[in-house]
Amino acid sequence: MTNISALEALKAAVSASNTVTKQSDSNVDFSSYLKTNKTLEEIYKEASQTYGVAEELLKAMTKQESNFNSNATSRSGAQGLMQLMPATAASLGVTDAYNPYQNIMGGAKYIRQMLDKYNGNVTLALAAYNAGSGNVDKYGGVPPFAETQNYIAKITKYLEEGVDIPDTQTVYAADTTINGNETVTYQDLNTLAGDILAEIFSYDDYMNYLSSLLAKEETAMELSLAVTSASTEEKTTADSYIAYQNMSSTPAANAIHIANTENDV
After folding, report:
1. C-alpha 72: how far from its chain's center?
2. CB 183, CB 35: distance < 8 Å
3. Which long-range contacts does 245-250 make (Cβ < 8 Å, 24+ apart)?
4. What is the pLDDT of residue 261?
5. DSSP letters along the chain, please?
């Protein structure tokens, strides 16, 4: 692995720590692929060849899903170019749904699964992609949802007319340069981040730190209550004593005191 400075290593750890995840053996972990300098056209071609899905279908779906906005997030939480829900993305091995390569490969894999489930029926596969296969099975076909029916109609139209990818959608350099002259892959950074985090902040350290914080907060609360009680009591005693002094110093008070003394005698 390339040597980089401690500062850059920590920066890498912070930026990559939320993507260092372990995928099940049955899934393709797309984060294992190095960053690519491929254009979207080339990614669609690779996805098409990998999963046996027509490039035109993948492009039409992307057009409808996000209009080729790789940072798109829907109100329901779907993410990226092909609008993958987080749980679906995770099941497909996608660790970064906003990464164009991962998103397209994941979306292609998912629509392939739906095509297989419905014997190559594109309409039912699209309905399942949009509304979930559970709803397709429930209604025995395209669900009676306006959104799903509109979704299928628009993609069908895009397939007939063709889809042009915006010129601005060229993705990612092949790797990242650190310290000006040394190159580190994202795969290296993820591994490095995991190593650093494990070395400087273990699970036990984390739990001890939390316990320490809780103990400090509890102690601070007790001290605060004790100080408040003490100051209140002190203030009350002082006021009472001052009032007593004032009463004792008046002529009327002295007369009463003398009268009480004579009666006692």
Report:
1. 14
2. no
3. none
4. 46
5. -----HHHHHHHHHHHGGG--PPPTTS--GGGSPP---BHHHHHHHHHHHHT--HHHHHHHHHHHHTT-TT-B-TT--BTTTTB-HHHHHHHT-S-TTSHHHHHHHHHHHHHHHHHHTTT-HHHHHHHHHH-HHHHHHHTSS-S-HHHHHHHHHHHHHHHH--PPPTT-B---SSEEETTTEEE-HHHHHHHHHHHHHHHS-HHHHHHHHHHHHHHHHHHHHHHHHHHHHHHHHHHHHHHHHHHHHHHTSHHHHHHHHHHHHHH-
pLDDT tens digits, 29-41: 555 444 456 889 9
For 33, list phi and psi in degrees, rounded to 5.
-80, 140
Q: What is the pLDDT of residues 115-169, one digit of tens each?
A: 999 999 999 999 999 999 999 999 999 999 999 999 999 999 999 999 998 865 4
Q: Which fold has domain 36-172?
A: Lysozyme (1.10.530)
| Cα angle for residues 130, 77, 150 (degrees, 5° grid) | 30
Q: With a threshold of 0.85, does the pTM exceed it?
A: no
Looking at this protein, which amino acid is placed at residue 209? Y
Distance CA 239, CA 120 (A): 89
The active-site residue out of 42, 55, 56, 65 is: 65
Q: What backbone torsions phi and psi does residue 157 show, to the nearest 5 degrees?
A: -65, -45
Angle at Cα 215 formed by Cα 212 and Cα 217, nearest 5°? 110
Tens of pLDDT, residues 233-255 = 444 445 555 555 555 555 544 54
| Catalytic annotation present for 8 | no
